[in-house]
Structures are given as structure tokens and as C-alpha cells.
Design a protein that fits this description.
This protein is of the alpha/beta class and 1532 residues long. Helices cover 33% and strands 17% of the residues. The chain contains 40 helices and 55 strands. The strands form 17 sheets. Strands 12-13-16-20-21-22-25-26 form an eight-stranded parallel beta barrel, surrounded by four helices. A seven-stranded mixed β-sheet has the order 23-29-30-31-37-33-34, covered by helices on one side. Strand 30 and strand 31 form a beta hairpin. Helix 28 packs antiparallel against helix 40. It is globular and about 135 Å long.
Length: 1532
């Protein structure tokens, strides 16, 4: 049943662009692309750059994927194309429709990491990473002894900051040569290279089981990089980025201000070198506005030289040839054109626009006047530019002051002291490699390319900026507005859009990437959010060529998950760094654990094949990153242990930074720190600053929690529960859903220093469900008696006076933290241990390993053992069992194989009223609603909603956890029945015996697993009994075919009249009360829930419209035969009943049921092997004469062919009678004349006719009910005369009987009637010919207004259609456009000229085709109303009491005939028309598929309101609706 390959389905929908949605997959998964409803039927091609097997990945190379259609059917519900994912990285897909791009997105495939000599897999959730600042490792030969600290602390991955040569600032991230190993690592005797690093990394992987990753820095290089001086084009300089010139001028002016302030030149103006207060800050603002801005005239870079431009304009005006000036668009306004070189007053205007705007009349005075106008306009434009620049200058001065405040005044800032050249007023934005000179002298360089190419922009970051925008490119004013928080040691790199734009830079950085990928297993993308995406893509592609399973981590500061996803999906980032330091209290820290991984405890088992759901990025959750400030300063030393434990319990990768475990009480600066890390020495004393061991800091506890983190990840503890016990205590549970073991870590955080803050001695009791097997670890942060911390000059040392008291793998009674543990019983099978703490001081942790109570553990094991027959997933944690209930020894599939389809109706379906008839009802979920069905489908519909979302808080799950009521209902309901159904009940009861013994929180998950196994097996059992069309059909076909099981059932009381005792193959059962044998034939309900039970279950018309689809197409031939013959037995007046009422309470008030019955007999004869045998079957006549009382079965039998002949004869003779018991007792709304029934055949045309204006004998049978609106007793749609579908059905029957009689399979060639006392023979041949000759003449509304056949041209309002009836008492009704003519087209296509038929179908498509159904009336008709409300009673004649039931609402079953007619006639119209029609059909049907899948009833409704809107008065699932759609699929 269950296949173990993981398959994910991505539904494609038109115009759905999912570039910002993250889809994460693993290697070994299969990804299937399927067509969503908006694309079914269309020609869609999916393209991807995921390479075919054996080929290398090329981001630019896309290939189409081939569609697979497992059922080879014409509907698209199962069509898919697939990728078998075996490569890590980011891959793109998109899809085209008719060569137009229609949507797309990305998928990210996780890398698979390996460690150790035996290459064992390191799952991403097992990663425990530690960051090292590379420069603090010291000379290369000493690295091992320093890195060993990480190994001994239990880490399995090291992150090195860059190992390259550093720039002048000595910042770890300012690299002067990306290709060279930092020479600091070499010794006087030996120079070390990348291959030495590579060998060490390989040794650590094989011998230490550790992987190594390092940073790649793509955004900037050190300002002193030699190569950038040789290739200044790689930076943003004033040659390639002239738009930066104004910002450069301002930057130089601010530098000169620094020099002047540092030399005391502004002391007089109130600005000394040492800035200490707000007053001095105000002085800076004043000086900038009064001394600097007026001197540097920044606005001139954006303005026009007025005099020069006016002179040029004058010259053009006076030239003779000015008429040849190009005419410009008069709508264009004069505006300033920016000088691309950004020269002062270098901007221009468009002279053509100027000449077109200011046109002189005659004479020099007019020219002067025009020049003055132009001068005035340019001055206005220049003034506008000045305003803009002032706005930028205002922001610039604010940013300068903000910077000064942070660096010199803020409590949390670096407090730089006096302004000097080393610590300038503000960081410089540009390099300036020349000596000192005045600002005026410097500005002369601005237009000298040999000099200004060396004025390069520094990099930095911009608060709140759009990360997808490059702030150094034209259009950004960041440098001018001083919004950059600048790194003055690094130059921003300028890649352009492709390698050709800056070949040296791309090649240099690619080589850098390749060195990194050769030596390391992964990379951290430094400053990822500012790295141009196309650059990072290119570099990572190069890296993955060398290291296919490259582990890529990054820290993103975009502030939005959607933006994060763009980076994650485009770059294939494996893990995003998340910081626990962002948590402001323990509650938030716990929330982050829950957010970044795992599923809730007790989650449902998800199927292997399921939709691909959007994910959040995999997290690398770090208690501290190297950028974070020191937690000891912000929280307390006591918090290191509990916070790192909380982080380590997260179901994702975890990490820390070197120095955290040693309790270094300050931030280790990436810029200024030059000391070395400590070395490992197991025997070191606490006072030894340069060495550490398990007694140092929290290292011993770190080792234990790292080991535990790896174990939980490797063993599948994927379920997480976070409990905030009190404001400081957080309990994190990790649970394994296969072995049902839990690990519970209780941490008492110390965000406040326990020495200076109050912490309560009273710690709340904790309840832990299950049996505590052991204390995995308990640890307390304690002070010890050593000398206090003193910062060492050479070594990064921690606080020696703190350590941890630790115990591992002890029993509860050995614990120093737990006072006592009692056992409380929560429920019959749930043990809860109550823990009382005594020593859970701030800074302590205790971790328990918890199993289920042994009794429950056995029950789960047995359950899992029995569930393996459905899904191999349950093998882990299963227990074989010998003494189980014998029924559990039988595979469920063999129990299911004994069920009939009628049994399956009871097992799977049955709505409330069907159950009530049998003395039961559907299960009602408190605080929610009753289930739709009493059978399994009722439960499965709810579970299908809950399961994918793991909605464990749903009332359904609450009900299961609260008691066994629902569980008992499911099994007892079945056991109370007999035979094979009861066996299923007993099997479920035996399974539930074990289910009831497991903890309540696990019951929803296992209840679901048991039901899924049973349900899917039962569905297979149903399909195995159906036709090959169903068995080999698509998912859509199979799910529709279940409508046959849903609608066809046997209740406690038989709904059908009894069949002849001499008929073979009739099912019998023992009556439980009388103990006598009785017939039990299935009957077909018209619809659920309204037409499902009692007298209202069976209707002649509904039964026979639905019978071909639900019984013949699905291969249920015997049931179809029995229903046909049962109704045949009730024939009276030549008619089949409308409402069957078991035959004894039948109403013969419809004219069409008999023709649908005859059509079904014809279909039966054609579709069933030896189908014509039915014609000889005995029919037990209940009413041999019109007035006889109902006779018992077997009193009078006749072969079916005689009953058929009687129906034909009675019609030709003419039918006229008054309904029995006429009056309010059978119809409280009908007027007296309405009870008079007439039907007959027109001698001239052969058309069947009948009815009167007070009754409605066709399927459009709404009778007015409102006194208030005065429509009571008046049919909304009498359709008297000859209704088009009845004419079509009668033609089909006459033609068929004629064929049968020619083949001697039907003994009658003609019908004998009495006319004027004489016998009169009418042959079937003649009747057939009459209808054929008259149909189009009288039913087609010609496009020619002068058509002689058209008797009432005044009533025509649409041409090219077929009338709805002929000869109605209200003649205008004949001309209404309704969908009924399409029925005639399907059953008697020979009546229609293909061209005329096609035209009529096109009009019907345009006017009547709805979302799921067909409008029952032309929307252009004055009485059209598309919303049906049966409860409304007002004065509106056309609406009150649902009078418009068939005057607009969209009914589903006619769409079947419309689409079948289109398919039939499109074949005659040519190949192209046919393929367009197939597309239309598939597209329309896709909407039915979606409805069917989403409906809790698993059916298709009777009708919808206009445009497919839900109608609450409709049956939720209707037999003929499902049948009609199945018939289209059969025709396809």
C-alpha cells in the first residue's frame, strides 16, 4: 500500500510566480509537477535548469520535461512530469503556455554532508558549529591544539573567518589578497599554503568527525589591496561612476572639517576637538550649513548654465535654418537633462522642446522676449534642483550628527574621544591616495581620469535599505545623503551585470571561490544581503562544481521572510543563521526554538506522496554569533549554560562562537582582537589562562548537550514542545514519533544577574508524562574559589571563577536538583511524573529521558506492527505479537475483499437521514458540527483538512483526546450490522483495543493511521469490483466512480418494488425481525442529504439520468438491470413514476421519466455483454391495467420487451388521466387542472407532446408556492407542448427499436392504435422518419429572418439556436434559450445539421456555460435570476419561494450533455476544432475535480448559484451531477 519513496507534488497554476516562495527538498526525493485547475487541458511545457543525469549544472541551460500520463486517459488530473533529485543547490523551473511564459519559481535541494573514515551522513539538524576568528589561531603548527578545544567540546563543524591576508585595519573581513593564505600563519622556518590547510581540514573530517566551512567575502576588498590599485575599474570610482562626484566633494569637505577641528580651528566657534555635549553637536550643524555647504555648491552638479544655454537658444532662433529643427511632441515639457559626466553646471535641456515651446512672432524684440521666457523657465528648473539638493543636505547633516553621537557620546558606543585624523569626525566614504592639499586643489582632480579612478567608494551598510538594490549604482543617493554606515577599511566592488563588464574582478573572485571550495566543505556568505544576487549565483555555481554537497550558510538582515526567501531560493542557502541573542527574555528564546524547527508532539503521519508545501529556511540557531555583543555583559555569566541548552534543543542546526563556552566576559572584536585562543590541556589548572579543559567555563556541559543534540537529530526526534514553566524556566521536549521516547530539557535562565537580582527560591512543580528512564544530564553554573578574572595580554581567556557541576546518565534518586518525583495517574494508561525541584538555581539545567509507560509502549509497538501492512513507515518501533485477537492475524485486505459495493456504501458513506432510517445517526463533534457521513468518509473528510496542517487543536482531535466516544462509535456502528461489514467492525475494535492503551496525546495520530489504512484498502476493494474503465482510469475517474458507492445502497427497508421471483441473480437477505428471506436490491438516491431516504429517495427521472454514468460505466450491470426491471414493474398509463414511493405510493406526473428509462435500456443493451438478454427478462407488473390495485411480485410476469411496446403504444394512442387522490393530500400547491395528465404523439410530426400550463412534466419542475407573490400553483417552467429533450429521447428510442426489430431482437415493427374505432398501424420506420423530417424545420431558429418555417418571427430574440419546446401554451417559452437541446444532440445527433448544431453550441457556450454547471436560462431573458433562495418569501413573482429554481441557477448535470455534444460535433468540424474542444472540456472538468477533492461530501452538487457561487439549498452531492461528468470522461 504505502511506497516509501518520498514524492512531492507541485501544482502549477496560471500566472503563479513563486520566486519568493521557498520549496525545500532532499536528495532522493521525486518532485512531480502537475497541472492545477487553471491549466488543465492547455498545452503546457515545464522547463528546468536541473540537469539530466550525468550532465553538469548550467544555470542558463533549461530543458523541457516530458509529461507522463500513467492512465493514458484524456483528463489531466494525473498527468505529471518529474525530477529525481540527486544534486544539491538551487534550481529554477518555469512553464510556458503556447510559448508564453506563464509562471515559475525555484526549488532548493539540501546537501548531504559526510564525516568520518566511513563517510557516515551528518544530517543538517545534527550540525553543532563553532566560529573561530582565524587570526586568533596563531601560527599554523599550533592550530590543532587550539581547534582540539572544539573537538573536545563536542562540536562537529568549525566555521573559520577568512584565512586570507588581511588589510591594514586587521579586520577579519577586510582582505587584501583573496588568493593568498594569511602569512601570519607561517613560521620563520616554513611558509604554509592552502594545501596544508586542505590537509588539516581532511584530517579533521576523517579523524575528528568534524567538517570545516569558511567565509567568502564578495562585496569588498581591503582598501590597500594591491590588485585594486592595478585594476581600479573593479571599484566604484569617479571614472566609472561619475554620479558619485557630488558625494566625493562633500566627503572631502568633511575631511577638511575633521583636520580643522582636530587642529582647534573651530574652538572659537564653540567646537573643540573633544565633543562632549549637545551644544557642540548643534555647532557642527551650524558649521556645516554656514561654512561648508555654501563653499562647495553641490547643487551645481545638477543645474544648467543659464547664460550659456540662453545664448545657444538665441543663436538657434536667429539662424535661417531653424525651421529644419526636428519637431517635438507638444505634450513634452521642458526639463533638465542630467550631464552623464556630472560636471558643474554641465546639465542641458532639449533645445527642440525649447524651440517648440517658446515661438517668437516677428522681429528682434520677439526673440528677446522668448529668450527671457526661457531664462525664467531654466531658473525655475534650477531652483527646483536646489530644493532637492537642500533636502539631501538636510539628511546628510542629520546622518553626520547621528554618527558623531554614536561614536563619541552614546553610552553603548565606542566613545572615541577627541577628533583626530586617526579618529575623524565621520568615516571617510572614498579613498584619497594623494598628499595634503586644499579642497580647491583637490577638486581639480575630479575630471582627470588618471587621478580620479583612484577615488574609490568604501563599502558599508544602509539601515532599512532594499537589499535587492545596489546602493552605489546611479539612482541611489546614499553616498550624497551620508546614509551609509561605512567600513573605511574596505572598497566596494563593482561587478556590473555579467563577467564581460569587469573581466578581471569576476575571474579573480571565481579563483578565490574555487580555492575555498577545494579546501572546505561549505561557505558562509558574508554580508549576503548586500551581495548582488547574480554574482553570488555565479560564484556558488563554480564552488558546487568542485564541492557538489557544498553547505552554504548566511546571515540575512532583510527584515522580511519574503526577501530572505529570494536569497535562499536563488542561492540555494542550506541554513540561515538565527541568533538567540535577539531574544529579550526566556519566553522569546523558547518561541524561537519552536519557530525554527520540528513539528508538534503527536503530529499526524504524513503520506509519502503529498503536496510540496512552502517552507521556512532551515536554521543554524546560534546562542551567539561573532558579531553579537557579549551575553555576560548583557545578561549574566550564569545564563551561558541554560541559554545554550535551550538553543541546542532546537530541531535544527545549532552553533556558538569560540569564547562563549570559556565565559570570556567581553566581545571578541573581529577588528581589534590580536590575542590567541586557548589550547586544550586535560590537566591545566584553572589559574592557567592559556589552556582549558573540561573544568573550564561550561565546556563539560557543552560537550554533553552537543552530543545530545547530534543524537536527537540522528535518531529522528523531530517533534518539539516548548513549555514556559515560569518567567525564567523553559522546558523543551524533543519527541521521537517512531519509538515514542522523549528528551525533556528544563533550563532555568539567568537573563538578570542572580547576585544583584531577585530569583524566587520556590520553583514550580513540573509534570512530565511518561516514565523517566534516566537523567541524561544535570548541570549547575557555580562559582569556585580561584583568583578573579584578569584580561590576559596574549591569550583570550575566560572567567576562571565559574565552572559547572555536572552529572551524566544518573537515576532520579541520585539527582541533586530533583527533590522528589511522585507518580500520578492522569488517565487509565497515562503515567505522569510530578517533579519537585530543590536546587534548580538560575544557571542550572536538568535533562530527562522519558519513555511511555511500559504498558503503553507495548500497545504502541503492537499497533505499529499491524499498521506496517499499510505503510512500511511503521516498521521502526513495532513489536511482533502472538496473543492478539485472531481477527488481527488476517490481513485487512482479505477482510475487505469479501465486501460487496453495497457493504462499502455502509462502511464509507450514509448521511444522517439514511442512518436515522436504520436507527442511528452521524457522529456529532461537540463545539463543532456533526460529520457529513456516518461511514469512514465522514471522518476522513475532516482528517484530510486537519492532517496537512497538523491542526492538533481542532475540536475533532480534542474529542479523541478527551474520551473513547468517537472510537467506539466507529467500531460499534459496524459490529451491529451483519456479515462482512461486522467483520470490519471487529477488526477496527481489535485495533482500537490497543489504541485506547496509549497516551491520549498520541491517539489522534494513531486513530488517523488506522483509518487511513482501512479507508485506502476499502477504496481499492471498491475499484476492484468496477469496470476496467474505472480500474485503469485516472484519479478523477476513480474518485467520481465512488459516487456510485455513495448513492447506491440498501437500507433497513427496501426502496424498490420487488422483482419477479423467477428472475435469477436477485440478492436476498434474512430480515432481522421476521427472520424471513427478503430481496435487498440497491436503490439509487437522487441526492444527499435531501433525497436520500424514505419516500423521497428514488425518483424515476433522476434514477435513469444517472444510471448510465453511475452503474453502467462503472460496470455494475446486475444492479442496473434490477433497477430497470423494478421500475418497469410500476409502468402505468404508459408512464414510469416520477416519485417512486416503492411503487405503491408512486406519482405518475412526469412525461420524461419513461423516455429516460427507455434510453437506459438502450444503453444497457449496447454496453453490457449480451445486454439484449434483458429484453426477455421477466417484469413483475404491479399495475397490469391502469386501474388495478398493486399486485404482489410474481402475480403477473411479462417480458421486458412487452412492457416497452406498451409504453410506445400508449403514447401513440394518447394518454389522458387524472392523478389518483388529486388534491392537497398529494400536492399542497398544485391547482386543480394541474392534476390532469396528458401525453401523446403528434400524427404529423411524430413529436411527443403533453402537459398543460398548470403542471410541469419535465425535469424543470418547480411549482410556485408563494401566496404573497401570487405564484402558488403556477409552474415556473411548464414546458408543455413538445419539450426538445423528450423529442430527442423519443427519436433515439424509436430509431433503436427499429434497428432491433430489423435484427429480430424485438418482436414488434409497428405500433397498433385505435383511431375512430378502427385499428391503425404506425411503423417504427414511419415514426422515425416523421421526427427526422420535421425536427430542424420546427425547432431550429434560422439565421434567415425570412425563413418560411418560422411561424412567430416576432418572438425570436436569438437566431441560430434550437427552441426549448414546440407548441407551448405560452408561445414565447418555445423561444427561450436553455441547455435542454444539447440532450437531444447527444441521444439523437442525427436530427441536427452539424454546422447549425455547432453554431447553437457556440451560443450556449457564450451565454449558458457556468463554472460547474449550465445556466438554466439565457441571462438576457427578462425573468433570468441566477440566485436560488427557497426560503425567501416576498412580493416578487419571479423569485418568491425559489420560483427561479430553473430560471438561471447553474445546474451541473446539463453540462455533461453540453460537453458531450461539443465533443461529438467538433469531430465533424475538423481536427483543430476537436483539439480546442478537448481543451475546453478538460478545463471545465478541472473545476469539477477541484470541487470533488475539496468537498467534505466527496461529490458534486445539484446546482450552484450564478458564476459557480455556493447555493445552500442545493443537494451537496447529486447522483446525476456525478454521472454526467463520468459520462464525459467516458466519451473522452
Amino acid at each position: 500500500m504505502g511506497h516509501s519513496k518520498q514524492v512531492r507534488i507541485l501544482l502549477l497554476n496560471d500566472m503563479e510566480k513563486l520566486e519568493k516562495t521557498l520549496f525545500r527538498l532532499e536528495q532522493g526525493f521525486e518532485l512531480q509537477f502537475r497541472l492545477g485547475p487553471t491549466l488543465q487541458g492547455k498545452t503546457v511545457t515545464v522547463y528546468t535548469n536541473y540537469p539530466p543525469p550525468g550532465e553538469e549544472f548550467n544555470r542558463q541551460k533549461f530543458r523541457p520535461l516530458a509529461w507522463e500520463n500513467p492512465t493514458e486517459r484524456e483528463d489531466d488530473s494525473d498527468k505529471y512530469c518529474k525530477l529525481n533529485l540527486q544534486k544539491a543547490g538551487s534550481f529554477q523551473y518555469y512553464f510556458n503556455q503556447e510559448n508564453e511564459k506563464s509562471g515559475g519559481g525555484y526549488i532548493v535541494v539540501d546537501p548531504v554532508l559526510h564525516i568520518g573514515i566511513d563517510n557516515q551522513v551528518l544530517h543538517l539538524d545534527c550540525v553543532t558549529l563553532q566560529t573561530f576568528l582565524a587570526k586568533c589561531l596563531g601560527p599554523f603548527p599550533e592550530w590543532e591544539s587550539r581547534l582540539r578545544v572544539a573537538k573536545e567540546s563536542g562540536y562537529n563543524m568549525i566555521h573559520f573567518t577568512p584565512l586570507q591576508t588581511l588589510g591594514l585595519s586587521r579586520s577579519c573581513y577586510s582582505l587584501s589578497n583573496q588568493l593568498e593564505l594569511n602569512p601570519d600563519f607561517s613560521t620563520p622556518n616554513k611558509q604554509y599554503t592552502w594545501s596544508d590547510v586542505g590537509q588539516l581540514v581532511e584530517k579533521m573530517k576523517k579523524e575528528w568527525n568534524m567538517l570545516c566551512i569558511t567565509d567568502v567575502v564578495y562585496n569588498h576588498t581591503a582598501a590597500n589591496s594591491k590588485w585594486i590599485q592595478e585594476h581600479p575599474e573593479c571599484a566604484y570610482n569617479l571614472v566609472n561612476s561619475p554620479h558619485l562626484k557630488p558625494a566625493w566633494v562633500l566627503d572631502r569637505a568633511l575631511w577638511h572639517l575633521t583636520c580643522d577641528v582636530s587642529e582647534g580651528k573651530y574652538r572659537e566657534k564653540g567646537l573643540p576637538a573633544l565633543i562632549e555635549n549637545d551644544q557642540q553637536m548643534n555647532c557642527i550643524r551650524k558649521i556645516v550649513w554656514e561654512d561648508i555647504y555654501p563653499k562647495i555648491h553641490l547643487w551645481e552638479f545638477f543645474q544648467v548654465d543659464v547664460n550659456k544655454t540662453v545664448q545657444q537658444f538665441r543663436a538657434l532662433l536667429t539662424q535661417e535654418n531653424r525651421r529644419t529643427i526636428t519637431k517635438s511632441d507638444p505634450k513634452q515639457l521642458l526639463k533638465i537633462i542630467q550631464d552623464p559626466e556630472y560636471k558643474r553646471l554641465g546639465c542641458t535641456i532639449d533645445m527642440n522642446i525649447a524651440l517648440a515651446t517658446f515661438i517668437p512672432h516677428n522681429g528682434p524684440a520677439a526673440i528677446d522676449e522668448c529668450c527671457n521666457w526661457l531664462r525664467k523657465r531654466i531658473e525655475e528648473l534650477n531652483a527646483e534642483k536646489l530644493r532637492q539638493i537642500n533636502y539631501h543636505q538636510e539628511q546628510a547633516v542629520n546622518c553626520v550628527l547621528g554618527n558623531v553621537f554614536y561614536e563619541r557620546l552614546a553610552g553603548h558606543g565606542p566613545k572615541l574621544g577627541p577628533v583626530t585624523r586617526k579618529h575623524p569626525l565621520v568615516t571617510r566614504y572614498f579613498t584619497f591616495p594623494f598628499g595634503e592639499m586644499t579642497l580647491a586643489e583637490e577638486e581639480t582632480f575630479i575630471n582627470q581620469p588618471d587621478k580620479n579612478c583612484f577615488f574609490m567608494a568604501h563599502n558599508g551598510w544602509v539601515m532599512g535599505d532594499d537589499p535587492l538594490r545596489n546602493f552605489a549604482e546611479p539612482g541611489s543617493e546614499v553616498y550624497l545623503r551620508r546614509e551609509l554606515i561605512c567600513w573605511g577599511d574596505s572598497v566596494k566592488l563593482r561587478y556590473g551585470n555579467k563577467p564581460e563588464d569587469c573581466p578581471y574582478l569576476w575571474a579573480h573572485m571565481k579563483k578565490y571561490t574555487e580555492i575555498t571550495a577545494t579546501c572546505f566543505h561549505g561557505v558562509r556568505l558574508d554580508n549576503c544581503h548586500s551581495t548582488p544576487l547574480h554574482v553570488a549565483e555565479y560564484m556558488l555555481d563554480a564552488a558546487r562544481k568542485l564541492q557538489p554537497n557544498l553547505y552554504v550558510v548566511a546571515e540575512l538582515f532583510t527584515g522580511s521572510e519574503e526577501l530572505d526567501n529570494i536569497f535562499v531560493t536563488r542561492l540555494g542557502i542550506s541554513s540561515l543563521i538565527r541568533e538567540a541573542m535577539s531574544a529579550y527574555n526566556s519566553h522569546e528564546e523558547g518561541r524561537l526554538v519552536y519557530r525554527y524547527g520540528g513539528e508538534p508532539v503527536g503530529s499526524f503521519v504524513q503520506p509519502c506522496l503529498r503536496p510540496l508545501m512552502p517552507a521556512i529556511a532551515h536554521a543554524l540557531f546560534m546562542d551567539i554569533t561573532h558579531d553579537n555583543e557579549c551575553p555576560i555583559v548583557h545578561r549574566s555569566a550564569y545564563d551561558a549554560l541554560p541559554s545554550s541548552t535551550i538553543v541546542s534543543m532546537a530541531c535544527c542546526a545549532s552553533g556558538s562562537t569560540k569564547g562563549y563556552d570559556e565565559l570570556v566576559p567581553h566581545q571578541i572584536s573581529v577588528v581589534s582582537e590580536e590575542r590567541f585562543y586557548t589550547k586544550w590541556n586535560p590537566d591545566a589548572s584553572p589559574s592557567n589562562a592559556s589552556e582549558v579543559n573540561l573544568q573550564s567555563g561550561i565546556i563539560a556541559a557543552r560537550r554533553a548537550i552537543n552530543k545530545l543534540h547530534q543524537e536527537l537529530g540522528a535518531k529522528g526526534f523531530i517533534q518539539v514542545f516548548v513549555d514556559q514553566v515560569d518567567e525564567d524556566i523553559v522546558a523543551v521536549t524533543r519527541h521521537s514519533p517512531s519509538i515514542h521516547q522523549s528528551v525533556v530539557a528544563v533550563s532555568r535562565t539567568a537573563f538578570r544577574n542572580p547576585k544583584t537580582s531577585f530569583y524566587s527560591k520556590e520553583v514550580p512543580q513540573m509534570c512530565i508524562p511518561g516514565k523517566i528512564e534516566e537523567v541524561v544530564l544535570e548541570a549547575r553554573t557555580v562559582e569556585r574559589n580561584t583568583s578573579p578574572y584578569r584580561k590576559d595580554e596574549n591569550v583570550i581567556n575566560g572567567m576562571p571563577n565559574f565552572t559547572v557541576e555536572i552529572k551524566e546518565h544518573i537515576q532520579l534518586n541520585e539527582s541533586k536538583i530533583v527533590k522528589q518525583a511522585g507518580i500520578a495517574k492522569k488517565g487509565p494508561n497515562e503515567y505522569v511524573q510530578e517533579i519537585e525541584f530543590k536546587n534548580l538555581t538560575p544557571g542550572s539545567i536538568i535533562i530527562f529521558r522519558v519513555s511511555l509507560d511500559p504498558h503503553a509502549q507495548v500497545a504502541v509497538g503492537i499497533l505499529r506492527n499491524h499498521l506496517t501492512q499499510f505503510n512500511p513507515h511503521f516498521k521502526t518501533g513495532s513489536l511482533p505479537v502472538d496473543n492478539a485477537d485472531p481477527i488481527l492475524k488476517i490481513p485487512f485486505v482479505s477482510i475487505a475483499s469479501k465486501l460487496t459495493l453495497a457493504d462499502l456504501n455502509q462502511l464509507l458513506y450514509r448521511c444522517e437521514s439514511e442512518e436515522q432510517e436504520d436507527g442511528g445517526g452521524c457522529y456529532n463533534i461537540p463545539n463543532w458540527s456533526p460529520l457529513k457521513y456516518a461511514g469512514l468518509q465522514g471522518l476522513m473528510s475532516v482528517l484530510a483538512e486537519i492532517r496537512p496542517k497538523n491542526d492538533l487543536g481542532h475540536p475533532f482531535c480534542n474529542n479523541l483526546r478527551s474520551g473513547d466516544w468517537m472510537i467506539d462509535y466507529v467500531s460499534n456502528r459496524l459490529i451491529s450490522r451483519s456479515g462482512a461489514v461486522a467483520e470490519v467492525g471487529k477488526w477496527l475494535q481489535a485495533m482500537f483495543f490497543y489504541l485506547k492503551q496509549i497516551p491520549r496525546y498520541l491517539i489522534p495520530c494513531y486513530f488517523d493511521a488506522i483509518l487511513i489504512g482501512a479507508y485506502t484498502t476499502l477504496l481499492d476493494a471498491a475499484w476492484n469490483q468496477m469496470s476496467s474503465f474505472v480500474q485503469n482510469g485516472s484519479t478523477f475517474v476513480k474518485h467520481l466512480s465512488l459516487g456510485s458507492v455513495q448513492m447506491c445502497g440498501i437500507g433497513k427497508f427496501s426502496s424498490l418494488p420487488l422483482l419477479s421471483p423467477s428472475l435469477p441473480g436477485v440478492p436476498y437477505r434474512l430480515n432481522e425481525i421476521t427472520n424471513e428471506k427478503e430481496q435487498c436490491c440497491v436503490s439509487l438516491a437522487a441526492g444527499l442529504p435531501h433525497f436520500s431516504s424514505g419516500i423521497f429517495r428514488c425518483w424515476g427521472r433522476d434514477t435513469f439520468i444517472a444510471l448510465r454514468g453511475l452503474l453502467l460505466i462503472t460496470g455494475r450491470y446486475l444492479e442496473a438491470r434490477n433497477i430497470i426491471l423494478a421500475f418497469a414493474g410500476t409502468l402505468r398509463h404508459g408512464l414510469i413514476p416520477n416519485l417512486l414511493g416503492e411503487g405503491t405510493h408512486a406519482r405518475f406526473n412526469c412525461r420524461d421519466a419513461v423516455w429516460w428509462w427507455l434510453q437506459c435500456i438502450q444503453d444497457y443493451c449496447k454496453m453490457v455483454p449480451n445486454g439484449t438478454d434483458i429484453l426477455k427478462c421477466p417484469v413483475s407488473r404491479m399495475y397490469p391495467t391502469d386501474d388495478s390495485l398493486p399486485l404482489p411480485a410474481g402475480t403477473l410476469d411479462q417480458p421486458l420487451y412487452e412492457v416497452i411496446q406498451e409504453a410506445m403504444q400508449r403514447h401513440l394512442q394518447g394518454i389522458q388521466f387524472r392523478e389518483r387522490n388529486a388534491g392537497p393530500q398529494i400536492d399542497r400547491n398544485m391547482k386543480d387542472e394541474g392534476f390532469n395528465i396528458t401525453a401523446g404523439v403528434d400524427d404529423q410530426t411524430g413529436f411527443v407532446f403533453g402537459g398543460n400550463r398548470f403542471n410541469c412534466g419535465t425535469w424543470m419542475d418547480k411549482m410556485g408556492e408563494s401566496d404573497r407573490a401570487r405564484n402558488k400553483g403556477i409552474p415556473a417552467t411548464p414546458r408543455d407542448g413538445s419539450a426538445v429533450e423528450i423529442v430527442g429521447l423519443s427519436k433515439s428510442t424509436v430509431r433503436w427499436l427499429l434497428e432491433l426489430s430489423k435484427r429480430n431482437l424485438f418482436p414488434y415493427h409497428a405500433v397498433t392504435v385505435k383511431r375512430n374505432g378502427k385499428d391503425f398501424k404506425i411503423s417504427y420506420e414511419e415514426w422515425n422518419r416523421k421526427i427526422q423530417d420535421h425536427f430542424e424545420k420546427l425547432f431550429h431558429v434560422s439565421e434567415d429572418p425570412s425563413d418560411p418555417n418560422e411561424k412567430r418571427p416576432d418572438l425570436v430574440h436569438k437566431r441560430g439556436i434550437y427552441k426549448d419546446s414546440y407548441g407551448a401554451s405560452s408561445p414565447w417559452c418555445d423561444y427561450q434559450l436553455r441547455p435542454n437541446f444539447t440532450i437531444a444532440m447527444v441521444v439523437a445527433p442525427e436530427l441536427f445539421t452539424p454546422k447549425k448544431a455547432w453554431k447553437a453550441l457556440e451560443i450556449a457556450e457564450e451565454k449558458l456555460l457556468g463554472t460547474l454547471g449550465m445556466k438554466t436560462l439565457d441571462p438576457d431573458d427578462m425573468v433570468y435570476c441566477g440566485v436560488y433562495d427557497n426560503s425567501l418569501d416576498n412580493d416578487n413573482y419571479n423569485l418568491a419561494k425559489g420560483f427561479n429554481y430553473h430560471q438561471g441557477p447553474e445546474w451541473l448535470w446539463p453540462i455533461g450533455y453540453f460537453l458531450r455534444a461539443k465533443l461529438y460535433f467538433s469531430k465533424l468540424m475538423g481536427k483543430e476544432t476537436y483539439s480546442q474542444t478537448v481543451f475546453l472540456v478538460k478545463n471545465v472538468l478541472s473545476r469539477h475535480y477541484v470541487h470533488l477533492e475539496r468537498s467534505p461530501w466527496k461529490g458534486l452538487p445539484e446546482l450552484t448559484n450564478e458564476n459557480g457561487q455556493y447555493c445552500s439549498f442545493s443537494c451537496e452531492t447529486q447522483a446525476w451531477s456525478i454521472a454526467a461528468i463520468l459520462e464525459i470522461l467516458f466519451d473522452l
